[in-house]
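As agreed, record minuted below.
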Amino acid sequence: MKFIIVWLLLLSYALFFAPGSEGSDPVMESVLAGNWTAIDPLVLTVFNSLGIFPLVFLTILLRNDRQKWPAWPFSLAAFAGGAFALLPWFAFGDRSAKRGLRTPRWLLRILKSKVWLILLLVMIFGNLLTLLQGFSPAAYGDAFMESSLVSVMTVDWFILWWLSVEAINRFYPDVKNKGLAWIPIAGPVLVLFFVKDDQ
């Protein structure tokens, strides 16, 4: 029930309550024009991380895709819809089912490999290098109030963070160092390093 409530609140926020100018969205215009230098580095880092989060969810969910609904369509849809796409699966699809793992063995080997996990971590920390250009929390706050894209993606980011922790707790309740999952984006990947191959 909590997931469907959060989903409805997120939809309501995006449609009716997200701040932003009524006219053109300055950040969206810069994104569409490819004018990355006009975007604050913190805004850009959060924006890029929304493309990395789905890879983390693909890794977690496809390694454990035995639930009532297949996880892969929702994981793929997260590249475009973020938490908007994942919350329905957490709300309705994450129910136990007497079935085997859906994920093909070749893909499972990749998702369980240390090489894949290291690649994810490289992407995550590579994205953080954007912040070395200098960033301003005040500029992010201004962008949040002026751009509906920034305001919605910020809320989406925090929900994805929460969902990633929920996924680790759901599928790996007994793994060591589970508290690492609270480290945004990188944490769940670090937790998977402690998961045995048969899990």
Q: What stands out?
A: Residues 2-192 form one domain. The chain has a mean pLDDT of 91.
